[in-house]
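Recap slide: Lipase (Class 2), sequence and predicted structure.
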Amino acid sequence: MRRLMSVLVAVLAAVSFAPAAGAAAGKAPVVFVHGFSGGSSVLFKEMIDKFKAAGWADRELVRWDYDWKQSNFTTAEQLKKKVDQVLRDTGAAKVDIVAHSMGSLSTRYYVKALGGTAKTKRWLSIGGVNQGADVAKLCPGFLFDSCADMKPGSKMLKALNDSSPAPAPTKYQTLSSSCDVMAPESKVRIPGVPNVNVGCYEHISMPKGDRAITETIKYLKG
């Protein structure tokens, strides 16, 4: 009996200190980040369902929400804390980030300016306003700081694009749509970063489209 108890204790100890399954398999947990308005659980529901079918565990799929009205600089600081929490919870060394629309700004700033290159394996932008959004010119800056960040020439966009827009070792990819008037391909593209046109989808429906989901899973599996 004493020998059996010793074996059980040893087994439980090994299980307790074993890394998370995703970390052991070399698969990074995925942090999903919504854009202007909305929430990640609804926006990425169809995509997350397909991720699960492709082998990701639910604990590896993080739907992150934030106050979309605040400055993207503030959101980036909050994302930094969230990523650190995800790494602690999963035992992974790095995360993958999937961002939609304005979410591309705060996530890129985190990667570029807040130490995110050391903790982000892959970054993917779906309909990201990486070069700004012309419609944001109509948004009064005093109303939402986040909207002002999307105006072409803003402090945020200069910080992201003036030099080293996609710093290594993080890998980058963007997805654009032929029918996205909010973020046409010219606003989505980042110099030196591969872009995939996923066909004709409206801006808000892109993350729910089959082609965008397929390309996202393909990229993160690569």
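Residues 79 and 110 are 7 Å apart (CA to CA).
The chain has one domain: 27-221.
(End of recap.)
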